[in-house]
Every structure is written in structure tokens, then in C-alpha cells.
Amino acid sequence: MKSSKSPSETEIQMRHMVMPGDTNIHGTIFGGKIMAWVDIAGAMVASRHCGTPVVTANISDIDFYSPINVGHHVIIKASINYAGKSSMIIGVRVESENPYTGEIRKTTKAYITFVALNESGKPVAVPKVTPETDDEKRRYENAKKRKEAKIKLNKSLK
Predict the structure, then answer these.
(1) Under a CB-based contact definition with an 8 Å cutoff, are residues 146 and 90 in contact?
(2) What is the pLDDT of residues 77-119, one digit of tens each?
(3) Which of 31, 82, 114, 139 could form a disulfide with 46 if both were Cys (CB 3.0 to 4.6 A apart)?
(4) Beta bridge partners of 15
(5) What are the structural domains of the chain?
């Protein structure tokens, strides 16, 4: 296992088309369907980063900005932002593409924490993240702040 990886080594992009069975009575996709796809994309990135099975530990943020209509294409982009001892914070961006006009708009963003597991199902160490681009460095620093804020909030709630 490499001791460190850049986000570009493990990032993914996937696409889906919104079908009628994916939608509510308004003809827009169910939020839960997007959440499932976001979780899958995040898990793919996390497992590529650590090379082991992973489990979702936390979804700290998921924001929906605009609906996605039936027939539109869903573009899901996911990359690792930060890694701790056995956990990884994955950022996921969802966009909607109108296949008739080509218009693309941001619809959802999420930050998910995954934990790497060994063959016995116990947490295992993961490679560090080595951000290279300005965007990767910004995401890394923001993820560190997000993690610290969560720890502080959890302590204040106990």
C-alpha cells in the first residue's frame, strides 16, 4: 500500500439518466435516490484510496440546490478530500445535464466519511492524502476544518 495518494489518483465520475421510476409526483428525482448514488460514488473513491472494503460512518453535509427532471442526466463527481488514521472524507458534487440543451447545473453537494476495514471488519490504517492542485489543497483544508468542527460540536452536545 502506498503511504500517500493524490486525490486525482482515485477520483471518479459516473452518470445516470433519470427515469420515471426514479421520480416523485413532480417529475423530479427522489432525494433518496441521489443520496444512494452519492454514497456509492463516495464508497468507490474511498475503497480506491485505501484498497480495502469501506463503510459509511457519517454524512456530515448534503445540500440540495435544485431539482433534477425526468430524462435529464445526472453527473456525479467524487474525490477524496482528507484522510485520518482509518477514515476518509470524500466530497461529492452532483450536476444535472439537460440532454437537449446541454445546460449543466450544480444540484447537490455532500461530504461523507468512510472507514477502511480489514478482513475481520476492524478499522485499518489508510494512506494519507497529498493534495496537488489549488482546488485539492482548498478541499483538504476545508475538510480538516469540517472534521475539527464536528469533534467540537459532538463534545459540546455530550
Answers:
(1) no
(2) 999 999 999 999 999 999 999 999 999 999 999 999 999 999 9
(3) 114
(4) 75
(5) 4-157 (3.10.129.10)
